[in-house]
Amino acid sequence: MKKILFLIVFLSAFQSAFSQQDAMYTQYMFNTLAINPAYAGSRNVISATGIIRNQWAGIDGAPTTQTFTIDAPIESKKIGLGLQLFSDKLGKTSNTGLIGSYAYRIRMDKASLSFGLQGSISKFNADYSSIQLDPIGLSNDPAFVGKDTKSLVNFGAGAYYNSDRFYIGLSVPELINNVLPGSQTNINRQKLHVFFMSGYVFSLNNSFKLKPAVLLKEVSGAPLQADLNTSLWIKDMFSIGAQYRTNADISGLIEIQVTPQIRFGYSYDHSTTELSGFNSGSHEIMLRYEFGFNKARILSPRYF
After folding, report:
1. Is the dihedral of CA 149, 182, 68, 169 positive or negative?
2. Cα–Cα distance for residue pair 17/148, rounded to 1 Å
């Protein structure tokens, strides 16, 4: 059974290399800088966010992702700068690196429009020799021999518009189709990912606010995927929400505004695919800290 489970994960990794390759987050609304460089500085304070994701708990070699982002506005908040560190593992492959983001912000009376650029460098590793297909030893199949390591450089761009209650964005984080390790025929490449996001906050009364949001993900070789999310904020202190990811998961989310500067989030995903019988779900933890320029600003609630 363990061999079957490992083969499922390996085939998922193989499919990911040819289709959707970027790390996936359920709490993408807390990690927008990871998919859109134009988000940098949009919170108008220095904002640091860490996310840890363990996908398909109970399956050996299942995806695990850790990311840390920090961004801030400068030059009278007309420019946003951001930095992201990430580590993404799937089966016998891993990708670790950093991303620098720059955003030019056009400030309006009650909103801002940003255009962003990013540059990234990462180290991609594929350890095919450690894959055990034969119960009595390692396979001698030439396709599973040796280790491949490659440094990847890429660039991306995005646009982001936001007010206190509404946001919309479009981005392409990776514009270069780098050849990945292990591809002798140059078929296994980084694919172009396109992200569209939008959300709005409705005030139901003085205590409750409803925040629906959507994230659309398009990548060559994979079907269009949508994350449909709705959260209910209670007194700007606590939020509970649900999400549906097409052909993948249903999720529950909670957010807690621990202090005016600290926000905690947790999400649980339950697979809606055939993998649901082999794992106990996916877990994601988020922690954000904001260094406010002044107390009045940090007390103003932000929903994205």
Report:
1. positive
2. 14
Backbone phi and psi for residue 209, each to the nearest 5 degrees, phi listed first: -135, 140
Task: Decide if pLDDT at 139 tops 60.
Answer: no
Domains of the chain: 2-263+270-296 (2.40.160.40)
111 pLDDT more than 70 = yes
CA atoms within 13 A on the CB side of 294: 2
Averaged pLDDT for residues 106-122:
94
Average per-residue pLDDT in the chain? 85
- Please state, as a whole number, how many other Cβ atoms lie within 10 Å of the Cβ of residue 293: 14
Is 29 strand, coil or helix? helix
Confidence of residue 66 (pLDDT cuts 50, 70, 90): very high
What whole-number distance in Å separates Cα of residue 11 and Cα of residue 19?
A: 12
Q: Which of 266, 267, 259 has its CA nearest to residue 301?
A: 259
Q: Is 4 helix (H, G, I), strand (E, B) or coil?
A: helix
Strands (E), the chain: 46-54, 64-74, 79-90, 93-107, 111-127, 147-163, 166-172, 193-200, 202-203, 208-219, 225-234, 238-245, 249-257, 262-271, 282-291
- Tens digit of each residue's pLDDT (9 = 90 or more) over 161-183: 999 999 999 999 999 988 877 65
